[in-house]
C-alpha cells in the first residue's frame, strides 16, 4: 500500500523557526484547511499543540469537528451560514448580506476585502457591517484580510497592507480587544518588520515551503505491485507512449491519478525522487518505471512536480487522497 511519510522533526523545526520569527506561539494561527494541505491534520495536530499552537484555521465545520479536541480556538474560513452555528467555533463573515443569517451569539471574524476581491467586506462598507453585526447580536472577535500577491515583488502588497491598517483604525474606535490578522506565510517571510499587534496565519510555510531555512515535511511513497522484463521494442501502459530499445527490468507501483497524482501523459520526462523516469502514462491506480525495489519515493519536494505540471506546490499536495495512510517518521 502506498504511504505518505511525515517527518516529525522537520515539522517541529519549521514551527520553531516560525515561532522565533513571530516571537510567541500564542500569536500563530496554523492553517490546517484541506487536511493540513494534504499532510494529515489529525496526525500533525498534537505536534502543533505540544509546541504551544492553540489557534487553527480550517475550511469548514467538518474539519473543525475533526480538530475540536486539540485546539481551543478554531476559525472556519469558508462557511455558509445556516443558523445553527456551534458556539465553540469562530466563523468567518465573507459576505455582508449574510450577516443576519448567523445564529445569535455566534463568534465571528469579519473578513475585509483590501484588494483580493474574492471574499470579504469592502472598505467603504465596514461601518455598515459593524451595524449589521451588532443588530444580529453576533460576537465580533476579530477582523482580517488576505493578501493577493505577498509572494510577488509588486506594490499591491503594500497597498493592501495600508488599507488593512485603515480598517484596524476604524475597528479600534468601536471595539476593544479584537484579534487582527493579515500576514500569511509569504508576507511573514517577505518582511523583516512585522506588525506587533497582529496574529499570523501560517499555512504552507509550516510544511517547509516558502523559505530556504524550512524543511520539507511530506514524502510520498509507492509500493511494488508487479515486475517483469520489458523486451526490446515492447511498450508499457496506455497508448504505447513508451517503448524500450533494450531489455529492461520494470515494475509497476500502486499509485495513480485516482490517488491524487497528476495524470502524466508519458511525454517530457517526469522523474521520481531517485531520478528514475516514469515510463509511459500514469494510470488510474498505478505507474511503471525501472524496477526500484519494493518501495520507491515518488517525491519529497512537491515543487519539482509542480514545476513539471506548470502549477504550484499547494495543488500537488492537496490533491493527495485522504485515504493514503499518513505515518510519522
Automatic annotation (TrEMBL):
Pathway: Amino-acid biosynthesis; D-alanine biosynthesis; D-alanine from L-alanine: step 1/1. Substrate binds at residues 118, 284. The active site is at 33 (proton acceptor), 238 (proton acceptor). SMART domains: Ala_racemase_C (SM01005). The keyword Isomerase applies. Pfam families: Ala_racemase_C, Ala_racemase_N. Residues 217-329 form the Alanine racemase C-terminal domain. Keywords: Isomerase, Pyridoxal phosphate. The keyword Protein transport does not apply. InterPro entries: Ala_racemase, Ala_racemase/Decarboxylase_C, Ala_racemase_C, Ala_racemase_N, Ala_racemase_pyridoxalP-BS, PLP-binding_barrel. It catalyses: L-alanine = D-alanine. Its cofactor is pyridoxal 5'-phosphate. Gene3D superfamilies: Alanine racemase, Lyase, Ornithine Decarboxylase, Chain A, domain 1. The modification N6-(pyridoxal phosphate)lysine is found at residue 33. NCBIfam families: alr, PRK00053.2-2. Belongs to the alanine racemase family. Catalyzes the interconversion of L-alanine and D-alanine. May also act on other amino acids. PANTHER family: ALANINE RACEMASE, ALANINE RACEMASE, CATABOLIC-RELATED. This is Alanine racemase. It comes from Campylobacter estrildidarum.
Amino acid at each position: 500500500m502506498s504511504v505518505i511519510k511525515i517527518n516529525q522533526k522537520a515539522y517541529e523545526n519549521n514551527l520553531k523557526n516560525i515561532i522565533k520569527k513571530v516571537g510567541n506561539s500564542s500569536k500563530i494561527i496554523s492553517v490546517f484547511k484541506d487536511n493540513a494541505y494534504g499532510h494529515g491534520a489529525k496526525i500533525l495536530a498534537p505536534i502543533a499543540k505540544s509546541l504551544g499552537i492553540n489557534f487553527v484555521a480550517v475550511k469548514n465545520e467538518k474539519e473543525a469537528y475533526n480538530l475540536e479536541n486539540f485546539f481551543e480556538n478554531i476559525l472556519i474560513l469558508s462557511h455558509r451560514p445556516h443558523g445553527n452555528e456551534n458556539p465553540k467555533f469562530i466563523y468567518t463573515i465573507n459576505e455582508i448580506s449574510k450577516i443576519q443569517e448567523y445564529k445569535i451569539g455566534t463568534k465571528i471574524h469579519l473578513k475585509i476585502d483590501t484588494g483580493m476581491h474574492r471574499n470579504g467586506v469592502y472598505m467603504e462598507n465596514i461601518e455598515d457591517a459593524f451595524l449589521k453585526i451588532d443588530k444580529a447580536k453576533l460576537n465580533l472577535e476579530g477582523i482580517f484580510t488576505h493578501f493577493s500577491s505577498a509572494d510577488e515583488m509588486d506594490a499591491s502588497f503594500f497597498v493592501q497592507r495600508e488599507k488593512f491598517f485603515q480598517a484596524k483604525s476604524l475597528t479600534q474606535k468601536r471595539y476593544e480587544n479584537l484579534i487582527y490578522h493579515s500576514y500569511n506565510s509569504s508576507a511573514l517571510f517577505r518582511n523583516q518588520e512585522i506588525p506587533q499587534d497582529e496574529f499570523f496565519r501560517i499555512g504552507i510555510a509550516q510544511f517547509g515551503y516558502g523559505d530556504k531555512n524550512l524543511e520539507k515535511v511530506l514524502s510520498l511513497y509507492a509500493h511494488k505491485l508487479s515486475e517483469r522484463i520489458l523486451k526490446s521494442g515492447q511498450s508499457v501502459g496506455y497508448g504505447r507512449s513508451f517503448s524500450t530499445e533494450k531489455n529492461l527490468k520494470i515494475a509497476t507501483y500502486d499509485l495513480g491519478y485516482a490517488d491524487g497524482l497528476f495524470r502524466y501523459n508519458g511525454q517530457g520526462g517526469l522523474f521520481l525522487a531517485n531520478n528514475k523516469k516514469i515510463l509511459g502514462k500514469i494510470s488510474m491506480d498505478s505507474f511503471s518505471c525501472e524496477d526500484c525495489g519494493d518501495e520507491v519515493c515518488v517525491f519529497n519536494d512537491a515543487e519539482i512536480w509542480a514545476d513539471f505540471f506548470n502549477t504550484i506546490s499547494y495543488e500537488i499536495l492537496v490533491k493527495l487522497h485522504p485515504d493514503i495512510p499518513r505515518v510519522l517518521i
